[in-house]
Amino acid sequence: MKKICMGDIAIDCANPERLRGFYANLTGWTQCIRYSCPALIAENGLVLLFMPCDFDYIPPVWPEKPGKQQKQMHFNFQAEDLTFSVKRAITLGAKKAEHQYDQKNYVTLFDPEGHPFCLCAE
Length: 122
Hints:
With 122 residues, the chain is an alpha/beta fold. It folds into two domains: 6-56, 2-Layer Sandwich (Signal recognition particle alu RNA binding heterodimer, srp9/1); 58-122, 2,3-Dihydroxybiphenyl 1,2-Dioxygenase, domain 1 (Roll), CATH 3.10.180. 19% of the residues lie in helices and 32% in strands. Strands 1-4-3-2 form a four-stranded mixed β-sheet, covered by helices on one side. A four-stranded mixed β-sheet has the order 5-8-7-6, with helices on one face.
């Protein structure tokens, strides 16, 4: 079988520049343009593309509820200091989800466009 590897991850959003800025500030990853889209490159080479929608973007509801916009995926970021990283993410524009499952090991937040993501203890 021929090798297949992850090239990039595309994130639909209403404001690609703003969302790229949020994640750049959160992670420290390098900002660039790829395929005419704002993008970030992680230290390991992973590329996040922030793509403008050709439809009205509707943020997902989390936890999921029948009949509402469902999340398609979410990111788990490893944090050296979970408490500090959660406070920093909120300062940068994230919102902490009301419902949490295990705040000792991970905290669920929403980015400025409503995509859920988790900060996880290393």
